[in-house]
Amino acid sequence: MPVAVITGGSKGLGRALAAALAGRGWDLVVSARTAEVLERTAEGLRGHGTRVVAVAGDVTDAGHRAALVAAADGLGGLDLLVSNASVLGAEPLVRLDSQPLAGLRAALETNVVAALGLVQEALPLLRGSRAGTVIVISSEAAAEAYETWGGYGASKAALDQLAAVLAVEEPGLRVWAVDPGDMDTDLYEAAVPADDDEVRPTPESVVPGFLRLLDRRPVSGRYAAPALLDRG
Fold first, then answer.
1. Fewer CB atoms near the end CB (10 Å): N or C, the chain?
2. What residue numbers bound the domain in which 223 lies?
3. Name one GO molecular function term (predicted).
């Protein structure tokens, strides 16, 4: 069975993608900071009959990243790495003139530095897979200028660039930066609580776009999940 590591896997998009992969027979390593929530998610995923290893911890911790890759190795290897864990840098989001610098550092550390550290840890296994794939979760704020989204968007823009360079340096892998679009998640609610009345897509509704990437394996690059669905 193919093996995936998904960070931020206890809820939201991470959980939805993990459930879809489990339904396809993938074995999974899922990560999140809150052990109790993560274990409940893992128990639900095991109901699909696949092997699921839950590793609680923070992706900014090198030891935690090593434990994720070791868990994947214990399942037989690593075919897909999904860097989904993210922090905002300020909750709710604020204009750049009020952006806490400590918050920006935290966003860069989690969204960029830790994502690269996990890739570095995982590369030996990914290179050994016939379908080695890295997915980093991007954002429209990485490419467009939206008021109050500057700190978070800057971290995602940096992540996009890392993914683009990784694709050049590792031509044997598929490396996709995927913008899932606005979703009904705890992260978005924390970012813009004033938008609570807005109806947004569920994470489950955009997961088919990710599955389409995995099925069709287009060239490395930046993709928008909703646009993938629109292509039919």
1. C
2. 3-230
3. oxidoreductase activity
List 223's β-bridge partners, or say none. 178
The answer to whether residue 191 scores a pLDDT higher than 70 is yes
- Cα–Cα distance, 141 to 4 (Å, whole number): 27
pLDDT at 196 over 70: no
142-153: buried (b, 16+ CB within 10 Å) or exposed (e) per residue? beeeeebbbbbb
Alpha-helix runs per DSSP H in 77-181: 101-108, 114-127, 150-169
Q: What pLDDT sits at residue 170?
A: 98
Q: How many angstroms separate the CA atoms of 31 and 54, rounded? A: 6
What pLDDT sits at residue 166? 98
- For residue 49, give Cα distances in angstroms to 2, 70, 81, 104, 157: 14, 21, 21, 41, 37
pLDDT at 39: 97
Whole-number Å distance between alpha carbons of 207 and 221: 18
Indicate which residues carry an active-site annotation. Answer: 152
- Check if the beta carbon of residue 65 is closer than 8 Å to that of residue 114: yes
pLDDT band with cut points at 50, 70 and 90 for residue 176:
very high
Does the predicted TM-score (pTM) go above 0.70? yes
Total domain count, the chain: 1
Q: Which residues contact 61 (CB under 8 A, 6 or more apart)?
A: none
**End-to-end CA separation in angstroms for the chain:** 27
- Tell me the β-bridge partners of 52: 28
Facing residues of 30 across strands?
6, 54
Q: Is residue 161 predicted with pLDDT exceeding 60?
A: yes
